[in-house]
Amino acid sequence: MNKPKTTVAAALALASLCMTSGVEAQQQPAQQAAPQLPQAPNMTFFVTSVGPGKGADLGGLEGADQYCQQLAQRHGAGGKTWRAYLSTQAVDGKPAVNARDRIGNGPWQNFKGDIVSQSVDDLHSNNNKLGMNTSLTERGQVIPGVGFAPNRHDVLTGSTPEGRAFPAGDDRTCRNWTSSTQGAAMLGHIDRKGLRDDEASRSWNSSHPSRGPDGGCSQADLRSTGGDGLFYCFAAQ
Asked: What is this structure's pTM?
């Protein structure tokens, strides 16, 4: 008399096992390791592929340096000390900081191993090799510039063509990289192209100040002139 009940119980147990196995099979791909990011352990220079997302508020120089370090770490180059190419202006008794003094001595090479500059002086001369096809991201990608939609070629520097800070007074660093509203930041052109064929348009580090309806330092303002809150990172070596 108990035989049919036993058979039914066994069938239910088997069905439950099959359902469990099916669920595990469906879940298995999600448990697989994420694809390996492209690695470039010898890279010593890159442009951030994306900014932190708060416009020109980078958390000051310290926050920008940490961001460079994080991106480098993801792509196998985190064993170096990375610095953002950014100047700050003198304020509240604190001296100005020159971008050129923060990044070491060089030489520097991009994701693909191409030498973009031999030294600090070379970097700030017409001899450097920076440009659309060499100023690559930490992933080895080209930043779209003039002629592309969207154009993202504006890069935050806060610097003069010589890589130095601007005098105190007119803001050129979005309040030393802490403002996402009011202020202005000096921008360079990653692709070294602009609306005109002049020195400013061809400048990789000092082309024009940011501007816009939010005050000049928001993500929307930076995008409105052809940027995205990107900046240069150099290994201090």
From this structure: 0.85
